[in-house]
Design goal:
Its EC number is 4.1.1.33. Keywords: ATP-binding, Lipid biosynthesis, Lipid metabolism, Lyase, Nucleotide-binding, Steroid biosynthesis, Steroid metabolism, Sterol biosynthesis, Sterol metabolism. GO terms for molecular function: ATP binding; diphosphomevalonate decarboxylase activity. By secondary structure, the chain is an alpha+beta fold. It folds into two domains: about 190 residues, Ribosomal Protein S5, domain 2 (2-Layer Sandwich), CATH 3.30.230.10; about 160 residues, Alpha-Beta Plaits (2-Layer Sandwich), CATH 3.30.70. It is built from eight helices and 16 strands. The strands form four sheets. A five-stranded mixed β-sheet has the order 1-6-9-7-8. Strands 13-14-12-15-16 form a five-stranded antiparallel β-sheet. α1 packs parallel to α2, α2 crosses α3 and α5 runs antiparallel to α6. The radius of gyration is 21 Å and the shape is globular. The N and C termini lie far apart (about 55 Å). The structure holds ligand 2P0.
Amino acid sequence: MSTVYQATASAPVNIAVIKYWGKRDTKLILPTNSSLSVTLDQDHLRSTTTSRADPSFVKDTLWLNGKEDEIKPGGRLATCISELKRLRQATVENEDPSAPKLSTYKVHIASYNNFPTAAGLASSASGFAALVASLAQLYALPVSPSTLSIIARQGSGSACRSLYGGFVAWQEGVLPDGSDSLAVQVAPQSHWPEIHALICVVSDDKKGTSSTSGMQLTVETSTLLQHRIKAVVPQRMKDISKAILEKDFDTFARITMADSNQFHAVALDTEPPIFYMNDVSRAIIAVIVEYNRLSLANGQGYKAAYTYDAGPNAVIYAEEKNIKEIIQLIVSFFPQREGTFKDNLGVFAQGAEVNA
Ligand code: 2P0
């Protein structure tokens, strides 16, 4: 019987608090600014990928949620796969001539997202991170998650941050080959386990402008982006990293909301303008602003921080002790309607789906 070479790995979704928006190199996926995210520590917002290498396979093949997906030559998927094969050869096979030449075999890859597309969450970050982690395991690559993040980055920028759990920075780097544009862990989740994320699904419609094309339009046309890159993000990266290390929720919340606001401002500053939030998104902002205002007036500091990606869904970061109150607040303002998930404002909390 021949040996089966197969490995399975999974990676969770991450939600940025300092947003990545803009590339200085579109092929290598090098960003115009550093970013920072929280990797969601829950079982049901993950991609799980199984990879198998076999000499009998005739071509590299990918199934996404059970459906075959094209691997375009020279495309992002092909780049990730060939980079991992190259690493296998350069490390394991070159060092140990008796190691099986897995880099010469074609691979079959099956990837599943366990969250419904209806959750309205981008799956490219967890998807590419799980794919890279699974092939790295299959090939027994003796490399760090940061090295793997360089490869995941070339699949989708935000994917590099899902190689680590907890609080993760993607350092933009300065080198033209992208070898220093990688993810590092600022702190593990266990450092600040009280931080939870509430995902409020406002709409599961496919967004109008993809991140990839939207951010390029912003780079080409927005003057505000230039200000953001040079004068705003570097200080925010330092300040929010410090806030995380010191478990300073007030600073974390202020910077998170300010950076979400500025990301949507640069989207609006794009020609033609890009709108990702809708009326419900803005109403949720108003609720959180008022909730914080009352809390601050009572001398209790910030209790919640909203952030929005390239779509209308809200993610609310809060400390565990306030999560229940925030869910009740959101649900009282935005009652859950009967009917399909699509019609509802779904609320997911870190750790469990909330039936409100
Ligand atoms: C982020 N987003 O930092 C930001 C905030 C959306 C808004 O990363 O072209 O899907 O594949 O590198 O990673 C979305 O961008 O774009 C994104 P590509 P990606 O999470």
